[in-house]
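Quick one:
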Amino acid sequence: MEGLENAILLCQAEIDAHGPTAETCFRMGALLARADRFSEAFAALEQAIQIDPTHARACKELARLSLAANEMRAFANWCHEALRLDPGDPEPHLMMAEVLAERRRWEEARDELRLALSLRPLPEDHRARAASLLTSLEKK
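Output:
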């Protein structure tokens, strides 16, 4: 945890020295989320979006935080915003597929997973998640 706190302090120092940018606010939000400082993370990520309304990665991080806070409507909205900004990104579809499967909405989960798999190749960690989900959905 000490390394994470140091990273947060370094990021804050960069913001203090050069002013906030969308990227530094995004990094700060992601670091704060990893440190379970969710309200601060939300604020930093929302500032990233204020500075750069096209910051799709900040939208995905806000979706993850919304999901962790069980704010399902916000989760879906942030996923849709991330997809609007980067239609070729499969991750928001995969995130939604996982949530839909957890809620036993099998057909919608399959549709989202199909969309995720039809887009640009998934990174290795996402491929494992998609394969696991696909296996479980085939049994439903």
